[in-house]
Design goal:
single chain; alpha/beta; 16 helices; 12 strands; 38% helix; binds pyridoxal-5'-phosphate
């Protein structure tokens, strides 16, 4: 079936109650028929639910649905995108090992990689996402993965997934792709050789700014080799099984759940899974309208006298447009950056006044909502940096990040226009 249909139906058949909506199983645990039944579950002799930290029927529907949208063999949901990304790396890498990552990353991932993992003994080496060969030179015998984002947040750059997959596979390591900004409706990274996909469900898939969530999807395509002892050697904490030998193609997803999620506990709440499912059902429609609105906004901004520059990969003049044509249907979701100026103001002051003049578009630090959202990094997320440091981080003082929503295009443009005109006053 096509993705729009999968988004509405995959993973759920009405149970004996005939409930058409996916039921919310708001429970922590599940009763055992008798002692033997409990013993069989624990000994893996029978499948079944034990505790919601490990499995829950509402979460299973969401997991099967996203798994089907991405074309994987297994998915595991988490309390947030950050938890999914943390687990995705921990399920490949131990102390003394490293991964090579694109340097253009979501801010939270950048901090996790550069500081938190380092303190835990996992090194992340940063490469230039525009130059795949820079990944090659950073790989050594302790490297366990390459990591990138399909569409970088916040820069809106498009990554050459197939080139990175080839480098990863030449080195017998998997490629992990954060597909949050593209969503499966613009790109399915497994079709280009990625081995593992992660998502923040908080953004387009949920789409309504109500619930945090994250997910890992396993393609089942990677041949786990001796570099990945945690997947190939017996697990003494789980009945001595070897995931690669005993769990078929979904070895990586199974271990993410029964070992890491079980032990570290960042499980998604069933109620949030239900809310996110509502978003998944109409994400294809929202993404279509988002992209339609975004290109119109980018064209409007490109022509406005108070806009210094526009970066949106959906514009045919953009340096990432060729990659967008190959990977994301020529589109770049609703994420764009641009610079503002006027004859009276420039830099940080222009950015701040523009943002303060908006009446409809919401000032906050999120993306992928059905509402249009704006952020002025120089005065918020990056306010601790000097002008020189801002430029080094790829964030100019005048830069505005916009996440275009699904309001009527006339209203979005009218709001942007009056805020740009306000710079002249
Ligand atoms: C928001 C985001 C994350 C983190 O997800 P949370 O659900 O906020 O934890 C990871 N990657 C990208 C690309 C994001 O935009």
């Amino acid at each position: 079936m096509k993705l729009e249909t999968i988004a509405l139906h995959a993973g759920y058949t009405p149970d004996s109650t005939k409930s058409v909506a996916v039921p919310i199983y708001q429970t922590t645990s599940y009763s055992f028929d008798d002692t033997q039944y409990g013993a069989d579950l624990f000994a893996l002799r029978k499948p079944g639910n034990i505790y919601t930290r490990i499995t829950n029927p509402t979460l299973s529907v969401l997991e099967e649905r996203i798994n089907a949208l991405e074309g994987g063999v297994g998915a595991v949901s988490f309390a947030s995108g950050a938890a999914a990304i943390t687990t995705a790396v921990q399920n490949l890498c131990e102390v003394g090992q490293n991964i090579v990552s694109a340097s253009t990353l979501y801010g939270g991932t950048a901090t996790l990689f550069a500081h938190t993992f380092r303190r835990l003994g996992i090194e992340v080496r940063f490469a230039d996402a525009d130059k795949p060969e820079t990944f090659k030179s950073l790989i050594d015998e302790n490297t366990r993965a390459i990591y990138c984002e399909t569409i970088g947040n916040p820069l809106g750059n498009i990554t050459d997934i197939a080139a990175l997959a080839e480098i990863a596979h030449q080195n017998e390591i998997p490629l992990v792709v954060d597909n949050t900004v593209a969503s499966p409706f613009l790109c399915r990274p497994f079709e280009f050789g990625a081995d593992i996909v992660v998502h923040s469900l908080t953004k387009y898939l949920g789409g309504h700014g109500t619930s945090l969530g994250g997910i890992i999807v396993d393609s089942g395509n990677f041949a786990w080799n001796k570099k990945f002892a945690m997947l190939t050697e017996p697990d003494i904490t789980y009945h001595g099984i070897s995931y690669a030998k005993d769990c078929g193609k979904a070895a990586y997803a199974v271990r993410a759940r029964v070992s890491i999620l079980r032990d570290t506990g960042a499980a998604l709440s069933p109620f949030n899974a239900f809310l996110i499912l509502q978003g998944v059902e109409n994400c294809a429609l929202r993404m279509e309208r988002t992209c339609e609105n975004a290109i119109k906004v980018a064209e409007f901004l490109s022509k406005h006298k108070n806009v210094a520059w526009v970066n949106y990969a959906g514009l045919s003049s953009n340096k990432y447009h060729n990659l967008a044509e190959k990977y994301t249907k020529g589109k770049a979701a609703g994420i764009m950056t641009f610079g503002v100026k006027s004859s009276k103001l420039s830099g940080k002051a222009a950015g701040a006044l523009f943002q303060d003049s908006l009446k409809l578009i919401v000032r906050l630090v999120n993306i992928g909502d059905s509402k249009s959202l704006v952020c002025h990094p120089a005065s918020t997320t990056h306010s601790q940096l000097s002008d020189e440091e801002l430029l080094a981080a790829g964030v100019s003082p005048d830069m505005i990040r916009l996440s275009v929503g699904v309001e009527h295009i006339d209203d979005i443009i009218a709001d942007l226009n009056q805020a740009l005109e306000a710079l002249d006053k």
